């Protein structure tokens, strides 16, 4: 069970490989990776991610512990970056390992739904037209209601 | 004395990320009223509470929460992680 | 859009990394990996996976094309091994890329549900007690009914 | 002449992975009846059709499907991929 909040890039392939390797206790591994998308209207120069040091780690650990009480998980990994990112950069990843594919999928979706609107991160986009804070989406808030 | 932290556009509107506040406010809402009455930048930041979230000692809560025993209050817009 | 059926191992980390790298059109990448589990009752010596050459590729390509009509997918990868595998070996992986995390998750679950009971693979387990064909699970058949 | 393929325990019971069959069976079910009457090993393999699946020219179908124009029939147990 690992939670990491960092400014540096992470190596998605190596993390995914290490997470899944030699696992004879859990036949199902799911990963989710969030990537900075370019914008259609005005090309994105960079994305700045602000966070709340201390609370971020608490919130992520809390979400992870909650997931473990709900599903049969043998391992969980959460990595989330902050700082300056550019289109194509990986923002974050989660990984779940379970004996059951349903558990691995649901737990990963649950972690993502909570990361979206309960972990203290804020995104700001800088384009040729200036800077703007990314607005939260009502669909993200709604997504929490199913858990 | 209580530490008050601001993030994202709340931080930008108020102009500082953190300050220490001497207050005897009973609840978060009372503290917000005190801050609003200080200066326009606070009034601007706290204009619409529905657009804000609050955490006490790093736990999300609501504006009716009591402040007794709390060391750190943080105000920020809805989160956009992931 | 890639479908591969092979006897050789695949490099999950490298495949996942290549799939997610430089993607500015799709902010959400989901992977699922199936791993040979050891058995609790009697240690598993090996798993033999038989398949139906020709039909396998057709079935996987059909499932993949079906997924693309149902969700907004920018890319899909399916790799499935056959032959002899041992506990901890990776049997297969799917990966999906979409602008929306819900689409990426649902499409990966859909692909897995179909792979489980509509792609012509059959697993046989060899333990100290002999060899046995793995029975299909009614829950796997049931899982298809939601799509 | 039609190619008939067997997989997994169906292949093991019948003892071969593939054979060519001369048949005028109208449907899969008719072909199964012909095979069953040949030898015990076929009767054993086709004992319980509910435990079997059939593909015609590499497309899953059911036992009532017509054989006209079909070049390849495959019998196997429910799949266990993934």
From TrEMBL, chains A, C:
Entry keyword Plastid: no
Biological pathway: Cofactor biosynthesis; molybdopterin biosynthesis
UniProt keyword terms in alphabetical order: Molybdenum cofactor biosynthesis
Enzyme class: transferase
Signal peptide positions on this chain: none
Spans through the membrane: none
Cross-referenced InterPro entries: MoaE_sf (IPR036563), Mopterin_biosynth_MoaE (IPR003448)
Reactions mediated catalytically: 2 [molybdopterin-synthase sulfur-carrier protein]-C-terminal-Gly-aminoethanethioate + cyclic pyranopterin phosphate + H2O = molybdopterin + 2 [molybdopterin-synthase sulfur-carrier protein]-C-terminal Gly-Gly + 2 H(+)
EC id: 2.8.1.12
GO molecular function, one term: molybdopterin synthase activity
GO biological process annotation, one example: Mo-molybdopterin cofactor biosynthetic process
Family: Belongs to the MoaE family.
PANTHER family (UniProt xref): MOLYBDOPTERIN SYNTHASE RELATED
Known function: Converts molybdopterin precursor Z into molybdopterin. This requires the incorporation of two sulfur atoms into precursor Z to generate a dithiolene group. The sulfur is provided by MoaD.
The protein's assembly and partners: Heterotetramer of 2 MoaD subunits and 2 MoaE subunits. Also stable as homodimer. The enzyme changes between these two forms during catalysis.
Annotated protein name in UniProt: Molybdopterin synthase catalytic subunit
Organism listed in the record: Actibacterium mucosum KCTC 23349
């Amino acid at each position: 069970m690992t939670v990491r909040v960092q400014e540096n890039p992470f190596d998605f392939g190596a993390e995914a490989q290490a997470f899944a390797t030699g696992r004879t206790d859990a036949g199902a591994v799911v990963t989710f990776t969030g990537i900075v998308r370019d914008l259609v209207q005005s090309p994105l120069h960079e994305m700045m991610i602000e966070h709340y040091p201390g609370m971020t780690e608490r919130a992520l650990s809390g979400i992870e512990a909650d997931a473990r009480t709900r599903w049969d998980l043998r391992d969980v990994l959460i990595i989330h970056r902050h700082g300056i990112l550019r289109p194509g950069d990986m923002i974050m990843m989660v990984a779940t390992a379970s004996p059951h594919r349903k558990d691995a999928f649901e737990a990963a979706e649950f972690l993502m739904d909570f990361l979206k609107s309960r972990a203290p991160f804020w995104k700001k986009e800088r384009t040729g037209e200036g800077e703007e804070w990314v607005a939260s989406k009502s669909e993200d808030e709604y997504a929490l209601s199913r858990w | 004395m209580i530490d008050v932290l601001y993030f994202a556009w709340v931080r930008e509107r108020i102009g500082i990320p953190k300050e220490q506040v001497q207050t005897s406010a009973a609840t978060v809402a009372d503290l917000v009223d005190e801050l609003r009455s200080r200066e326009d930048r606070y009034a601007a930041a706290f204009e619409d509470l529905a657009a804000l979230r609050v955490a006490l000692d790093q736990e999300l809560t609501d504006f009716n929460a009591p402040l007794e025993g709390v060391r750190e209050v943080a105000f920020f817009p809805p989160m956009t992680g992931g």
